[in-house]
Write a structure and sequence with these properties.
Layout: H1 8-20, H2 26-37, H3 43-55, E1 59-66, E2 74-80, H4 82-100
Antiparallel strand pairs: 1-2
Helix pairs in contact: 1-2, 1-3, 2-3
């Protein structure tokens, strides 16, 4: 399963893409990560993660319409693929199993 491992930051990016749904693009993802997780990241870090996730098959992208506000540039929007959804669900199951295996005394 080499190449499909989901790192912690990649998981956060996938979750953010899912939460933003059809409005997931680089700057929006960066802003949401800061607001939701309190994590300050650079746009280039977000773009690198998006590229990796797309290469792994967890995301797909498409360009939106050009706008005057952006000087004619188009936003690149990202959405989860079936594999991306499965990766998130697997990560959630693994985390829940680990949390459930912790004896109550260990957390007090």
């Amino acid at each position: 399963m080499k190449g499909t491992y989901l790192g912690e930051f990649e998981e956060l990016v996938l979750l953010t893409v899912a939460s933003l749904y059809k409005e997931a693009y680089g700057v929006g993802i960066k802003k949401s990560l800061h607001e939701q997780v309190g994590r300050k990241v650079t746009l280039s870090t977000v773009h690198a993660a998006l590229h990796r996730l797309e290469k792994k098959g967890f995301l797909r992208s498409q360009f939106g319409e050009a706008t005057k506000v952006r000087g004619g540039k188009r936003k690149k929007y990202f959405t989860l693929t079936a594999a991306g959804t499965e990766a998130l669900q697997t990560a959630r199951i693994v985390r829940n199993k680990l949390w459930d295996s912790i004896p109550p005394a260990a957390l007090s």
